[in-house]
Design brief:
238 residues; rod-shaped; mainly alpha; Helix Hairpins
Length: 238
Amino acid sequence: MGFFDRIANIWKGFLSLWVSDMENRNPEAVYEAAINERVKKHLELKKAVSGIVYLRNKISSELEEKEKELRDVMNQLPIAVEDGEDEVALILIQKKDELSKAIESLSGELTKISAQAEEAKSGLVQFQGEIEKLKREKDEMLAKKSNAQARIQIQDTLNGLSTDADIKALDNVREHIDKLQAEADIGAEIKGNSLDDKLAKIREKAANSTARNQLEEMKRQAASKKAASEGASVKKTI
């Protein structure tokens, strides 16, 4: 085998693999192509059968015509003999013999062509049945394919291996929501630890301290006034 022959074989192998892969990916198209091809052949076969039936009908009509002519000759022949018309009788006898041979030949042809017509019609009906069978097979196999794909999808989903877009979308949404929740949790966790919060607490404590000092001062002043008032009362009594 030459170099180019080997290269050609390799390319044929690649082409065969590619075609097989395309067929596996598109089983419905493969079935449709097969069905359409059979429908086309069925039409061709139907035309051929119609030709055989036409020929059978034609021979049958010719046979009926010859048989009618023979009956007419057989009715005319006795009359010619009775009337002494020998020449006419001879012609009728010759015609009778010719018609008898023609009828025998046509009968044989009609028997053969009728058998062919019946066989062709039977084959046509059988071929039509094959087409209907292939259509049913197509529906069954596509249903099996859909069922198998659904089972594989469910199994992949259960195993966490699904690559379907809806599963990925759900995972993304779940992750996004979890991140938002984490952000909210972080905000709650660091609340009160920021610099502003600390300054606010210090200001609050300072304000409370100032107010408390003022309160203490007011209490001391009140106590001093009370003590001074009580001292003045004691002196007056003395």
